[in-house]
Amino acid sequence: MSKPAPPAEANAALAEAAPPKAASPWPALIAAVILMPAISFATAEFLLLPKLRGLIAQQTTEGGAAHAEGGGEASHGGGGASHGGGAHGKGKEGGKGEATFDFENVVVNLSGSMGTRFLKVNFTTLGSNPKLPEIMTERKKQLLDVAINVLSAKTMADLEAPGAKNVVRNELLANLNQALKSDLVEQIYFTDFVIQ
Questions:
Q1: Are 98 and 64 in contact (CB under 8 A)?
Q2: pLDDT of the residue at 64
Q3: Which helix (H) or strand (E) holds 36?
Q4: What's the pLDDT score for residue 59?
Q5: Number of neighbours of residue 182 by Cβ within 10 angstroms
Q6: What sign results for the dihedral spanned by CA atoms 32, 36, 38, 39?
Q7: Which of 29, 32, 132, 157 could form a Cys-Cys staple with 127, CB 3.0–4.6 A?
Q8: 3-state secondary structure 38-99
């Protein structure tokens, strides 16, 4: 008769016959949860944003938006709040038969902010009429007043809405042309748009 195997040897034989345990999925899951946000951030910061900044810079230079240095001071008050603003316009002939006129350092208090928040913009108006700079220079004070009225009517919520700059651009365009009683201004380019 054969002797029964001691219990330790039987356990060893069973361990060799049992299939090995599968690797735990937890380390891979933890690595994915930690690494994915880091990889996404790095991709956005070092690949996507530099490309977007380059495209925006390229469009700005191709758009022909001229930005002349200097500025005059003007002020506008109304409705109990003061709307300080300055504008300086210089007419220029664009290379493609387009004329431009610059409004610089237009500063207004935002509506509903009780004087604690303001908007500062510089923008260039563009038109195909070669007399645009001359006409805009003659009516600069009236046009500056129109721009200040449009900008100071904006609230912080208006400016935080998606597409707010395009809404402001379209309102400025319409109101300037209404004041000029013609479609002299065809496009407006913001060269500075700061909310504080």
A1: yes
A2: 46
A3: helix 26-43
A4: 65
A5: 11
A6: positive
A7: 132
A8: HHHHHHHHHHHHHHHHHHHHHHHHHCCCCCCCCCCCEEEEECCEEEEECCCCCEEECCCCCE
CA proximity to 145, closest of 84, 66, 102, 71 = 84
Distance CA 186, CA 169 (A): 11
Structure confidence at residue 92 (pLDDT): 44
In this structure, what token pair is assigned to residue 64? Answer: 């022909």
Angle formed at CA 193 by CA 59 and CA 99, multiple of 5 degrees: 55
Q: How far apart are CA 70 and CA 172, in angstroms?
A: 22
| Cα-based angle 91, 97, 99 (whole degrees, multiple of 5) | 20
Q: How far apart are the first and last CA of the chain?
A: 97
If you search the block for the tokens 């006409």, which residue do you land on? 135
pLDDT of residue 49: 74
| Beta pairing class for 99-109 and 74-78 | unpaired
pLDDT at residue number 52:
74
Alpha-carbon span 70 to 196, nearest angstrom: 22
The two tokens of residue 147 are 């721009």
What pTM does this model have? 0.52
